[in-house]
Amino acid sequence: TEDVAQYALRLGDDALILAQRLSHWISRGPELEEDIALGNIALDTLGHARSFLTYAGHAWDRTEDDLAYWREEEEFRCAWMVEQPNGDFGVTIARQLVMSVYQYLLYSKLVDSTDATLAAIAAKALKEVDYHRDHAIQWTVRLGDGTEESHDRMQAALELVWPYVDELFDDDALIDAVGDAGVRPSSLRETFDAHLAEVLAEATLDLPDVPRARGGGRRGEHTEHLGYILAEMQVLARKHPGATW
Amino acid sequence: TEDVAQYALRLGDDALILAQRLSHWISRGPELEEDIALGNIALDTLGHARSFLTYAGHAWDRTEDDLAYWREEEEFRCAWMVEQPNGDFGVTIARQLVMSVYQYLLYSKLVDSTDATLAAIAAKALKEVDYHRDHAIQWTVRLGDGTEESHDRMQAALELVWPYVDELFDDDALIDAVGDAGVRPSSLRETFDAHLAEVLAEATLDLPDVPRARGGGRRGEHTEHLGYILAEMQVLARKHPGATW
Amino acid sequence: IAGQAYFDRVIAEDSRIEPRDWMPAAYRRTLVRQVSQHAHSEIIGMQPEANWITRAPSLKRKAILMAKVQDEAGHGLYLYSAAETLGTPRDVLNQQLLDGKAKYSSIFNYPARTWADMGAIGWLVDGAAIANQVPLCRASYGPYGRAMVRICKEESFHQRQGFEILLELSNGTPAQKQMAQDAVDRFYAPALMMFGPPDDDSPNSKQSMAWNIKRFSNDELRQRFVGMIAEQVKVLGLTLPDPELRYDEETGRWIHMELDWQEFKDVIAGRGPCNAQRMARRREAHENGTWVREAARAYAKKQAAKRAAEEIGAA
Amino acid sequence: IAGQAYFDRVIAEDSRIEPRDWMPAAYRRTLVRQVSQHAHSEIIGMQPEANWITRAPSLKRKAILMAKVQDEAGHGLYLYSAAETLGTPRDVLNQQLLDGKAKYSSIFNYPARTWADMGAIGWLVDGAAIANQVPLCRASYGPYGRAMVRICKEESFHQRQGFEILLELSNGTPAQKQMAQDAVDRFYAPALMMFGPPDDDSPNSKQSMAWNIKRFSNDELRQRFVGMIAEQVKVLGLTLPDPELRYDEETGRWIHMELDWQEFKDVIAGRGPCNAQRMARRREAHENGTWVREAARAYAKKQAAKRAAEEIGAA
């Protein structure tokens, strides 16, 4: 249905833009192992994006590439969190901590979707996101409980990304409409908070106390970053309309 | 003539891409006065670009905007120096030091061009570039002879941009063809070196001893940076072909 | 006469207080807060427009936009200077901004999503700023009033440029016209809120008016502005997103829709679309510039020491 | 038997030297240099391709390219491990790269200007690498040979992907085909130079062959490679930019054009198109990662101390 397609589009756009951001780290990591790890995570996440977008596209007779390369900014449905710049390694880890725990909880429930395709995509993605979560937690703890500098940087990184957490858990009319085919974001919040509190405690970090940003990605209202992301991502494809690669 | 137009294109592209790079500093400077100063320099430089490109475009019945927004990467004729990333403030100053001294020397001779338009553009630009040169020299000295950190950063910045200096002074067939309408780049080198040596001595900085990069911008062979610069610069104009603004 | 009596007479005569004059502590405090907030707004206000400099769709527009954003930095400088005459140095004011202790105009917490926003910001945001600021040219505190004169002149130039951008878009392709309308739709209500809360919810206004800082109430300024743009929008061939907008012949006032003051409070409280981004960018620029400022200070010190040594040598 | 005698016998039998075996100092030195250069090449070689990940023109190609660049990081890791078995730790080798004291394959100092370069690099650069490396799978030093087996398997996969990119472009729009031809034109000569200078100008080759590290001469490998791509280019529907290319029936060898060895030396000496850029990027990544590596070390130390304390407590 149209609603399920719109819902898949959200999940796909979150994954696509996150993968795009993460992929920038390849050849720039703090050590070779991290080039590989972040590359893996980006690659997995891109895979999830492709599955969700391919599925969403069925409803409109559009391919994953039609959706990735030929939509305008206001047609994207990603949350503001994934649009946030990479910053230093700590900021990327902070964003990953939030996104991987969020996606883990989301996909854990989505495996029970009444929509068989969404359930199947979630099942496959879940195993991978579990690793992403583990990676982000380990680094959060290492940086939080590492040196004084790394502690301060990691705390600052959390403060930077925290305004964008709440939007991930906002319900809206589409969530009502998809019903049991989807997952109600607000239903994940309690577990998310508990999980994060545990990780931050182990990392000797404080839960940030900063106001939320308004958000609006689900309605196509994006941060000023997305235009730049898309300009780069789409530039080549758009120079060759109709071409195959 | 075609040769003079091609020559104007080089000068215009150098100025255009440099202005594009510099303009990124506006609202990001180390202090408010530098937002203004770098903004001023970017604005002047953009002005020079517009004059040169407008003049070049006459030969092909194309406007400055046709040339800025609708050429592909390999049609640009800028040198690699101006494509270099801004880096920290020191890198930008190092690039400015080289470019402003180079342009100052170049325009100082171009005022005697047998081509009246080039001579007129150069005459106007010269006064402005003189200020750019002064700005870059002052900061080079301040950073070089400031703190230990700023000294090291400024020295590192010079090493970063130095491989791209030589290309600016390369002669080629077009230089032969334009003759007295243009300026022979190699003829500026000695003065450039003497001037730079003086500035670096005052700044307690060492002249870098690093191999030159091959270069090739004048033949349309660019660094990997230019594609990104153009993707951003051209994205909006290209979404609306034929539109006026 | 001096002190309170002199101050009261100057105010009563609608004349000007100058930096060395005595003034009540509350007057000074109010002015420092207002002038520095205004300065911070110029600085933060550079960001939404700087966002489009590298992507401006023509070289002419790029040049105009660069010049405009640079003017805003200049306004920031005048205003910090005016605030400094009241005894608070610029780095203290700047630190208040960085620490989130000082406010800036909440309009700059809205994103500039499209090129047409460069038009809407110029026409509506600068327009509202001018409506606010023209009366401030007569503010009782001399340096503030004089800074305002200079700023208003430039702002009205900026407003005209914004109008021109929208006019060009409105007369352009359907996509351009749509972009223009969309920008106006998004900036209309936030621009009206720039005049501050309704009069019955604006407790500080009365004292400011008594001191001849403020000259008109928030609602007076707002409805005057709305009347102005209601006329101008026709020239643009666009519409304002306000079904209730009309001129009431009886009262001689413009009526506009109810504004969402909860949104206004949210944005002021930090929950707007771009508050976090704007502050992060300002802090980042400040931090990245630390070594540069330190170097400049160290160099100046060395030079001063050298000159002093030379003078001793010459003496 | 042990020492030189054992070593000589192993070489004579074309068998394998293992890390704990005695080996001549020059053999060890040669291998450390060669293996670490190879590792560095994998690391620097990530850059030209990483340049197109964010702009890949389809999601499938983006995924393939990401996986490929990541494989290269993996190859770097195996090779550093192999080099470490010879007694030089990875951070020392890495520092040599950062200091400009160690070399890497000069092919990676050419820019990847267009998407088609992803095809040309896969087909020609990885192709030449494979031609070089397949014989190295039998290299006398065990860990190196075994690393090569694994790497060659992945490289041949990468080469096929590169070929596929070019094939798709060649069968695409005229602009795409032009892009493909242009990339092949630019990478042909640099790829041929990857085999090193002509045999009569390659002084170290003889010793390497005597030690069973190298198995074929530079020129032998080169002309074998040229023969291979001369056939494959027909399938691509493209041409090689070599008017002299032909198979000489008489000698059974492929003849190709004279290569510009001055350019080769220039690039090795640091005067290539991207040497400075590649090194700057590597150093930047290393410096930006310093605080992260320090944190990881500090955390590991704390954890070790904690575990030790627990063990004492438990005992």
Description:
The complex is a heterotetramer, with two copies of chain A (245 residues) and two copies of chain C (315 residues). Chain A is globular, with a radius of gyration of 17 Å. In chain A, helix 1 (2-23) runs antiparallel to helix 2 (32-58). With 245 residues, chain A is an all-alpha fold. Chain A has eleven helices and no strands. Helices cover 67% and strands 0% of the residues of chain A. The two termini of chain A are 30 Å apart. With 315 residues, chain C is mainly α. Helix content of chain C is 67%, strand content 2%. Chain C has helices at 3-12, 25-44, 46-50, 59-84, 90-98, 116-133, 142-170, 174-193, 205-210, 218-236, 261-271, 275-288, 290-314; strands at residues 246-248, 253-255. In chain C, strands 1-2 form a two-stranded antiparallel sheet. In chain C, strand 1 (246-248) and strand 2 (253-255) form a beta hairpin. The longest helix of chain C has 29 residues, at 142-170. The radius of gyration of chain C is 22 Å and the shape is globular. The termini of chain C are far apart. The relative contact order of chain C is 0.11. The mean pLDDT of chain C is 95. Chains in contact: A-B, A-C, A-D, B-C, B-D. The interface between B and D is medium-sized, with 18 and 17 residues.
